[in-house]
């Protein structure tokens, strides 16, 4: 049985779909409500490394304090963006899934099936 961890937002339909798909496939899933238990800056750096993404690629804009915090400023460093995401976890795009074959931002939600396939 494959083991997965999902950074999950139970209020998000996409995140719920991905979690159900993992469970329906028989995966052993650790669920982390990343807004209730935000990742640290170091955890975000490690996740970005596994995802092969930059902080801007994982930065959520809609329904977040993105604009109020001025995060659209192209001169902001990766460290500044990571610090903002650690302080305001709503800025982290979701769901992020970590599994045996790597890590993925499961948007679109069907991306989870690629992870399940191996």
Describe how the helices and strands are arranged.
Layout: E1 3-8, H1 13-24, E2 28-33, H2 41-51, H3 55-58, H4 78-87, E3 96-99, E4 102-105, H5 111-117
Kindly describe this structure.
Keywords: Arsenical resistance, Oxidoreductase. Belongs to the ArsC family. This is Arsenate reductase. This protein has 118 residues and is an alpha+beta fold. It has a single domain, classed as Glutaredoxin (3-Layer(aba) Sandwich). It is built from 5 helices and 4 strands, in the order βαβαααββα. It has helices spanning 13-24, 41-51, 55-58, 78-87, 111-117, and strands spanning 3-8, 28-33, 96-99, 102-105. Strands 2-1-3-4 form a 4-stranded mixed beta sheet, sandwiched between helices.
Determine Rg (CA atoms, Å).
Answer: 14 Å
Could you give the count of β-strands? 4
Provide the helix percentage. 25-40%
Give the total of domains. 1
- From the 3D coordinates, which CATH architecture would you assign? 3-Layer(aba) Sandwich
What spatial order of strands do you see in the largest sheet?
2-1-3-4
Share of β-strand residues: 15-25%
Distance, first to last CA: 12 Å
CATH class: Alpha Beta
Short précis:
The chain has helices at about 15-25, 40-50, 55-60, 80-85, 110-115; strands spanning about 5-10, 30-35, 95-100, 100-105. The protein is globular and about 45 Å long.
Short key terms for the protein model shown above:
37% helix, 118 residues, Glutaredoxin, alpha+beta, single chain, Arsenate reductase, four-stranded mixed beta sheet
